[in-house]
């Protein structure tokens, strides 16, 4: 029995040992954990000419920030910057806590500068002012009146090529100064220069062909007559009459703009089977195929066209339609094409352009001629040559006067001082006052 109990106790002890704990045993290991993934996003940039932003792209982690630096080129400024919920502080754009790929958009713009064009009397420019971005240039088209030329053009670092002035690259506000000089000198003290625009209406047909150059030559010649600059003629006048020669101060130029303000050459052409000697004055009536006058309070209207009879004989050389004596639409001067201008060939005896000068004298108030009916006491022919109450000379004595209709062109040479005074009065306070007043800024 003892043996069996001992055996059981041994087995029980073995069981208890196998199932019991011990202070020297190791705890079981805890499983390893993976740290959360940190996301990052691409911050890209876009910008136009005028500056840049750095860096151009950047990979930015979430919950972080990055400052981008904006640089502006000379002559430009920052117009706008946006994108990525960033904030701008002067030239720094900071992006924080991105949540997606995004783009910073930067826009620059060039500074705008003013280029102003100042002109003297005697011409005009197509455009008087420009707004230009930094670095651009302006091309200024310059148009002298027919009685002036371009004397100088300066300013804005430019250069002149014929009648176009190109500025340098603009980097500041600046002014172009255009100076015109007259083909004719300023009148002597006490004589006002009166410049008046002329529009020449040419009625063209198979018999009438007159060039622009011929028209220019007539305006130039007539200006010399009215300004006493026809020196070859004046040198032949006898010494006793020289003191009576007048510079009238009147100067013509071809109109530069039409009545609507559009640029114009001052030469208006129309093809029509019309004569300028018709009794119904069709040449000046558009409804009859002619050319309507431009407003005669702004322009001198001149019609040039055919002036021969049915046998081809030249009859009327010219005619002045004087205010108050004809309807307003006819006011002006009519001249035969073959005596208008001084470029050969012209009509024999009337080849120096003095028909137009003579007719303008009538338009400007010299009613009648220096020769004529002796009882014609109310015309300028009876005025003293110098305009004084008494003198030894009367206009009727001046056989070389432009208002002597019995003389050929080669014998017409001068206006007198009294005639000059009549014309100035006629323009300033007489029937052509509106024409004078509307053109005072051109003087």
From TrEMBL:
Q: Which domain of life is it from?
A: Bacteria
What would you give as a GO molecular function for this chain, any one?
metallopeptidase activity
UniProt lists the family membership as follows: Belongs to the peptidase M43B family.
PANTHER family attached here?
Answer: METALLOPROTEASE MEP1 (AFU_ORTHOLOGUE AFUA_1G07730)-RELATED, PTHR47466
What name does UniProt use for this protein?
Peptidase M43 pregnancy-associated plasma-A domain-containing protein
């Amino acid at each position: 029995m003892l043996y069996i109990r001992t055996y059981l106790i041994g087995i029980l002890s073995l069981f208890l040992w196998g199932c019991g704990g011990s202070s020297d045993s190791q705890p079981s290991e805890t499983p390893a954990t993976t740290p959360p993934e940190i996301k990052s996003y691409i911050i890209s940039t876009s910008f136009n000419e005028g500056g840049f932003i750095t860096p151009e792209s950047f990979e930015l982690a979430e919950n972080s920030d990055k400052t981008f630096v904006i640089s502006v080129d000379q002559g430009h400024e920052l117009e706008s910057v946006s994108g990525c919920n960033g904030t701008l502080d002067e030239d720094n754009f900071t992006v924080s806590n991105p949540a997606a790929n995004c783009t910073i958009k930067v826009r620059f713009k060039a500074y705008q500068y003013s280029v102003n064009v100042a002109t003297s009397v005697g011409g005009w420019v197509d455009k008087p002012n420009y707004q230009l971005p930094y670095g651009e240039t302006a091309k200024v088209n310059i148009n002298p009146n027919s009685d002036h030329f371009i004397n100088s053009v300066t300013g804005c670092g430019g250069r002149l090529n014929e009648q176009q002035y190109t500025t340098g690259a603009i980097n500041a506000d600046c002014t172009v100064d255009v100076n015109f000089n007259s083909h004719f000198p300023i009148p002597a003290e006490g004589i006002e220069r009166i410049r008046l625009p002329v529009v020449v209406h040419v009625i063209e047909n198979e018999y009438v062909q007159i060039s622009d150059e011929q028209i220019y030559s007539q305006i130039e010649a007539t200006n010399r007559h009215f300004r006493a600059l026809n020196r070859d003629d004046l040198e032949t006048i006898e010494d006793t009459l020289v003191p009576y020669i007048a510079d009238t101060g009147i100067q013509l130029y071809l109109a530069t703009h039409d009545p609507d303000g559009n640029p114009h050459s001052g030469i208006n052409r129309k093809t029509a089977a019309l004569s300028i000697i018709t009794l119904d004055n069709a040449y000046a009536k558009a409804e009859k195929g002619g050319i309507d006058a431009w407003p005669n309070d702004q322009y001198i209207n001149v019609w040039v066209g055919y002036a021969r009879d049915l046998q081809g004989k030249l009859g009327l050389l010219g005619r002045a339609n004087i205010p108050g004596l004809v309807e307003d639409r006819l006011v002006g001067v009519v001249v035969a094409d073959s005596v208008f201008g001084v470029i050969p060939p012209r009509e024999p005896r009337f080849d120096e352009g003095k028909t137009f000068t003579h007719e303008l004298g009538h338009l400007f108030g010299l009613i009648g001629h220096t020769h004529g009916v002796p009882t014609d006491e109310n015309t300028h022919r009876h005025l003293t040559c110098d305009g004084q109450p008494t003198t030894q000379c009367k206009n009727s004595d001046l056989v070389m006067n432009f208002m002597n209709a019995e003389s050929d062109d080669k014998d017409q040479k001068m206006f007198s001082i009294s005639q000059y005074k009549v014309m100035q009065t006629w323009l300033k306070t007489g029937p052509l006052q509106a024409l004078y007043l509307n053109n005072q800024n051109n003087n």
